[in-house]
UniProtKB/TrEMBL annotation:
NCBIfam families: OAFO_sf. Residues 269-432 form the Pyruvate flavodoxin/ferredoxin oxidoreductase pyrimidine binding domain. It comes from the Bacteria. Keywords: Oxidoreductase. Pfam families: PFOR_II, POR, POR_N. Residues 31-219 form the Pyruvate/ketoisovalerate oxidoreductase catalytic domain. One of its GO terms (biological process) is response to oxidative stress. This is 2-oxoglutarate ferredoxin oxidoreductase subunit alpha. Transmembrane segments: none annotated. PANTHER family: 2-OXOGLUTARATE OXIDOREDUCTASE SUBUNIT KORA, PYRUVATE-FLAVODOXIN OXIDOREDUCTASE-RELATED. Gene3D superfamilies: 3.40.50.920, 3.40.50.970, Pyruvate-ferredoxin oxidoreductase, PFOR, domain III. Residues 643-657 have a biased composition (Basic and acidic residues). Residues 626-657 are annotated as: Disordered.
Length: 657
C-alpha cells in the first residue's frame, strides 16, 4: 500500500480552500481486475495528498458465469481536498467494463454523472447475459447521464500487440488501460504504478511491459482524444493534514499492526490461531508476514482448533489471539466459555458479515452484536469493543490487548466486512505516546496461600483479576479447567455457594472495566441537543458527515459514537437522557438500540439497514431531519432497502471461507 509524507506549511494548512470531492466507481466482471484497479488508483490518490475512503464490493460466488450480473465486482473511492469519512453516497463517475456492470451499478450514479463504457463488450451475447433487450449505449436510456463510450478491449489489444501475448492474456491488461485513463482524468502520476508493475511481474518482464504499455496507452488516449468539455483532466488539491508519515491502510492491516503493537506494549510474544473465512482471512495473511515481531501464526484445521490453540498459548504465557466471522465465531463459542471459566487473556476478532448461516459472505453487516455480548451458554460475560473505521482498528486492537491482559479475560473486538476491506489514509503514530502495560507472570512469592497453606491461584487483585501462572513455574502447581471452581483455590467445587460466588466475581470483574475506560464524549454537537445520532462500528462515517451537514445548516444535532460496547461507558446513560430524541442507525434490525433501552430505559429510536451495503449520508440525514421537526414516528425510522440492480431470483451465493 502507499506510504507517503504530506508536509504542510502553516499558511497551507490555514488556506481557505474550497473543499471538493469526487466519487468514482470501477465496475466489471470478477475477472476484470476491478479490485486491483481500485487499489492502485487509491495508491496514486494517497500519494497526491487527497483524503480518501474506499468501498470494495465483490460477489460471494467463487467464479460466477462471465458477463452475468451475479459476477459483477466494483470498487468505489471517494477522494477530495477536505475531510472524507465515507466512500460516498452516489458516484460521479462510473467506469463500466461490460453490460452487467452497467446494469448493476448505473442506478447508483448521480443525475448528470459520467458513464465510461467499454463498448467493445456490449455484444449481443453479453447484453443478453445482463438481461438487456436493447443496447443501452444506443437506445437513449442513459440520457440522464453523460455517456462516454469507446472500445477499451480493442484499444488494449492494439497497445499490447508488440509483446506477442495471446488474446486472453492481452485482454487481462485492459484494467491497466482503464487505470491509465483514470490517472489522466484526475491528474495522477503513473510512476508509482509503473514501479509496482515491475515489482509484481519481476519474474515475467514481458507481462510487466505489456501492462505498462496498456497503462500508458490509456493515459495517452485521454490526452489526445477530443471529447468536449465534459471529458477533460481534473485536478483536486491535496487535503490539509498535519505533518507526518502517512500511508493508506485497510482495516485488516491496521488490526494486524495494532495487535502486534499491543503485544509489544504488553511485552509478550503473540500466537494467532485462525481458520480461513471471508472477510476475516486477511488478518491471518497480514500477521503471517510479521514473524520478526515475535508473532506465531497457525492456520488450524477448523475454527474450534484455532481458538483452542490460542487458549493453549495464553495458558502457556503468550498472548493468544483468534479471528473469524459470524459463522466461525458461533463454532468458537464453547471454547470462549472455557477461556472465561479459566480466566485467561484472549483477543477474539469478529469481522462481521451478513447472516444468518452462510448469509452474505462478502457483504457487510453489524448483526453479531447480540452474539458478542450475550452469545454463550451460562452467565459468561466478556468485554466487547467495536472499531469505527479502518485506521481506528489499530487503537482498538491495542485496547483489546490491554483489557485482556489487565483483567485476565477474553475480549471480543468487532469489525465488519466494510472496515476490513476498505482503506483510508492513516498517520503512522509515534509509539512513544502509548503507555506500556507490561505483564509480569506470577511467581511462588506473588501468589497467596490461605490459612491452611493451600495455594490460591484464583485469588484476586484490585481489578478482580487472578494471577497469570505459567505452567512449570516452581511451587505453583494447580488445577485449571472448565468445571466450576472453589473460590481462591480453583479446586473443583459444585456447591451452590461456590458457583454463585464465582459467577458474581466474573461478572463484577467485567463490569468493573467501566471504571477503566474513558467516559463517553460527544463527537459533534453538544450534550443536551434536540436530536442525537448514536452509533457504533462502521456507521461512524455516514453519521459524522450527516451531523456535520445538519450543524452547518443550524440544526441542533449531536453525534455520539460508542467504542466500548460492553461494559458501556459509566456516563453514557446520563448523556443519552440529556437529548430530546435519540436515533441509533445500525446495519442490523436494532440490536444496539435494544441494549441501550435495556440498560438505561431511554426511548432510543432505531434506524436499520440490512441490505449488505453501508449507510448513505442522505439516509441518516433524512431521519434526523424528521426527528428535528418533532414528527419522528416508529414507521419513519425504517428505510426501504435500496434497489440492488440485480435480477430477481438469482441463485444463492456459494460458500466462501
Amino acid at each position: 500500500m502507499a506510504t507517503a509524507t504530506h508536509l504542510l506549511t502553516p499558511e497551507e494548512a490555514n488556506a481557505d480552500l474550497v473543499p471538493e470531492n469526487v466519487v468514482v466507481r470501477f465496475a466489471g466482471d470478477s475477472g476484470d481486475g476491478m479490485q486491483l484497479t481500485g487499489g492502485q488508483f487509491t495508491l496514486s490518490t494517497a500519494l497526491a495528498g487527497n483524503d480518501l475512503a474506499t468501498f470494495p464490493d465483490f460477489p460471494a460466488e467463487i467464479r460466477a458465469p462471465q458477463g452475468t450480473t451475479f459476477g459483477v465486482s466494483a470498487f468505489q473511492i471517494n477522494f477530495g481536498s477536505a475531510s472524507i469519512e465515507t466512500a460516498g453516497d452516489q458516484p460521479d463517475v462510473l467506469v463500466a467494463m461490460n453490460p452487467a456492470a452497467l446494469k448493476v451499478n448505473v442506478a447508483a450514479l448521480r443525475d448528470g454523472g459520467m458513464i465510461i463504457a467499454d463498448e467493445g463488450e456490449f455484444s449481443a451475447r453479453n447484453l443478453a447475459k445482463a438481461g438487456y433487450d436493447a443496447n443501452p449505449l444506443e437506445d437513449g436510456s442513459l440520457a440522464r447521464w453523460q455517456l462516454v463510450k469507446f472500445n477499451i478491449s480493442q484499444l488494449t489489444l492494439d497497445a499490447v500487440k508488440p509483446f506477442g501475448l495471446g488474446n486472453k492474456e492481452a485482454l487481462r491488461c485492459k484494467n491497466m488501460w482503464t487505470l491509465g485513463l483514470a490517472l489522466w482524468m484526475f491528474d495522477r502520476d503513473r510512476g508509482p504504478i509503473v514501479d509496482w508493475l515491475k515489482t509484481k511481474f519481476a519474474k515475467a518482464p514481458t507481462l510487466a511491459e505489456a501492462n505498462i504499455a496498456a497503462l500508458n496507452a490509456g493515459h495517452a488516449y485521454g490526452d489526445t482524444i477530443e471529447m468536449g468539455a465534459a471529458f477533460r483532466p481534473h485536478h483536486i488539491e491535496a487535503a490539509p493534514a498535519e505533518p507526518g508519515l502517512y500511508r493508506t491502510v485497510t482495516g485488516a492491516e491496521a488490526l494486524g499492526l495494532g495487535l502486534v503493537a499491543g503485544a509489544q506494549l504488553a511485552d509478550l510474544p503473540m500466537f494467532f490461531g485462525g481458520y480461513p473465512i471471508t472477510p476475516a482471512s486477511a488478518l491471518l495473511h497480514h500477521l503471517s508476514r510479521l514473524k520478526e515481531y515475535g508473532i506465531t501464526t497457525f492456520q488450524a484445521e477448523d475454527e474450534i482448533a484455532a481458538i483452542c490453540a490460542a487458549i493453549g498459548a495464553s495458558y502457556a504465557g503468550s498472548l493468544g489471539v483468534t479471528s473469524s466471522s459470524g459463522p466461525g465465531i458461533a463454532l468458537k463459542t464453547e471454547a470462549m466459555g472455557l477461556a472465561i471459566m479459566t480466566e485467561l487473556p484472549l483477543v477474539i476478532v469478529n469481522s462481521q458479515r451478513g447472516g444468518p448461516s452462510t448469509g452474505l459472505p462478502t457483504k457487510t453487516e453489524q448483526s453479531d452484536l447480540y452474539q458478542a455480548v450475550y452469545g454463550r451458554n451460562g452467565d459468561a460475560p466478556l468485554p466487547v469493543i467495536a472499531a469505527r473505521s479502518p485506521a481506528d482498528a489499530f487503537d482498538c486492537a491495542i485496547e483489546a490487548v490491554r483489557l485482556a491482559v489487565r483483567y485476565m479475560t477474553p475480549v471480543m473486538l468487532l469489525t465488519d466486512g466494510y472496515i476490513a476491506n476498505a482503506a483510508e489514509p492513516w498517520k503512522v503514530p509515534d509509539m512513544s505516546g502509548y503507555a506500556p502495560f507490561p505483564v509480569t507472570h506470577a511467581t511462588e512469592a506473588s501468589v497467596p496461600r490461605n490459612e491452611t497453606g493451600k495455594l490460591e491461584p484464583f485469588s484476586r487483585d484490585d481489578k478482580l483479576a487472578r494471577p497469570w501462572i505459567k505452567p512449570g513455574t516452581p511451587g505453583l502447581l494447580h488445577r485449571i479447567g472448565g468445571i466450576e471452581k472453589r473460590p481462591g483455590t480453583g479446586d473443583i467445587d459444585y456447591s451452590p455457594g461456590a458457583h454463585a460466588e464465582m459467577t458474581k466475581t466474573r461478572q463484577d470483574k467485567v463490569l468493573g472495566i467501566a471504571r477503566d475506560i474513558p467516559e463517553q464524549e460527544v463527537c459533534l454537537g453538544r450534550a443536551g441537543a434536540k436530536v442525537a445520532i448514536v452509533g457504533w462500528g462502521s456507521t461512524f462515517g455516514p453519521i459524522h458527515q450527516a451531523v456535520k451537514r445538519l450543524l452547518a445548516q443550524g440544526h441542533d444535532v449531536a453525534h455520539v459514537h460508542v467504542r466500548h460496547i460492553w461494559p458501556l461507558p459509566a456516563n453514557l446513560g446520563e448523556l443519552l437522557r440529556s437529548f430530546g430524541t435519540v436515533i441509533c442507525p445500525e446495519m442490523n434490525t436494532g440490536q444496539f438500540k435494544t441494549l441501550l433501552r435495556d440498560q438505561y430505559l431511554v426511548d432510543v429510536q432505531s434506524l436499520t439497514k440490512t441490505s449488505g451495503q453501508p449507510f448513505k449520508i442522505a439516509e441518516i440525514e433524512a431521519a434526523a431531519r424528521t426527528a428535528h421537526g418533532g414528527t419522528l414516528a416508529p414507521d419513519a425510522t425504517q428505510l426501504p432497502e435500496p434497489e440492488s440492480g440485480r435480477d430477481e431470483g438469482h441463485p444463492s451465493a456459494a460458500e466462501v471461507r
